[in-house]
Write a structure and sequence with these properties.
This protein is of the alpha+beta class. Helix content is about 30%, strand content about 35%. The chain is globular and about 55 Å long.
């Protein structure tokens, strides 16, 4: 197992390709905001692990060599599950169960792309956020501050964000969570007291419009039973284009 340098991370990003299924990991590799490991030597690698700085306990595994992935994974600390290609999920799960004497479960990660003009949902509470909103972001609950960038300023200048402002406070946000040359992944969050008011749909619609205006394809991913997120994706016009699988240790055997 080899830990990649910053320059080698750029090479791995190119190897992964620029797709809705790889946009988050590829973006982190290019930002230098992850730890990455491979077996083999670039570009001929058997498997790769990418630990996103924003969710380091959920690394993404690439390649279908389950044994290579497991050998790397068990040499690292702090992970709680791994997101992998469907083709190797069951094999990896069996290796984990046999090696650690624990049970695992499997959870689908549904990946979408917006391949048509986004469906618009104007809402008077929703607008694009600008640098003038930095303080508002900093004062908002962590749940709606957004992430994916080193600072709030970077999210507002390098990325795209829209929010619901109620009585001067931010109560919902949609933003580019990760971005590559061709795609931009959208993240959304709404404070519990303000859900079911259409804020997430309207904010995400506005962010998707801006992404498409820049000539990129909006991407959207969520868990297979996150029905609220799946409904928003459907309303905006997203199309499911693939799935990956979380392999999750759950208990002692």
């Amino acid at each position: 197992m080899t830990k990649l340098s910053s320059q080698e991370c750029l090479g791995l990003a190119d190897l992964l390709g620029d797709t809705p299924l790889t946009v988050i990991s590829a973006s982190r590799l290019k930002q230098g905001m992850c730890d990455a490991y491979v077996t083999g030597t670039l570009p001929d690698v058997n498997a790769a692990l990418v630990f996103d700085a924003f969710c380091p306990d959920e690394p993404c595994g690439f390649g279908t060599d389950a044994d290579a992935l497991w050998q790397m994974l068990k040499a690292t600390d702090g992970w709680g599950c791994i997101n992998v290609d469907n083709a190797c999920a069951a094999s990896l799960g069996k290796l984990i169960e046999a090696d650690r004497g624990i049970l695992v479960r499997y959870y689908g990660d549904v990946c979408h792309a917006l391949l048509e003009p986004v469906h618009c949902y104007p809402n008077e509470a929703i607008r694009l956020l600008t640098l003038a909103d930095v303080q508002r972001l900093a004062q908002a609950p962590a749940e709606v501050q957004g992430n994916g960038y080193k600072t709030h300023e970077a999210m507002l200048t390098e990325g795209i964000a829209a929010g619901a402002i109620v009585d001067g406070a931010l109560v919902a946000i949609a933003h580019t969570y990760a971005e590559t040359d061709l795609h931009a992944d959208i993240g959304v969050s709404t404070l519990e007291a303000w859900r079911e008011k259409g804020f997430a749909t309207a904010a995400a619609s506005l962010v998707a419009q801006e992404i498409q205006a820049r000539g990129k394809v909006p991407a959207w991913s969520c868990g297979e039973d996150n029905f609220a997120s799946l409904r928003v994706a459907e309303k905006l016009g997203f199309t499911e284009i693939g799935r990956r699988t979380y392999v999750i240790p759950i208990s002692n055997g």
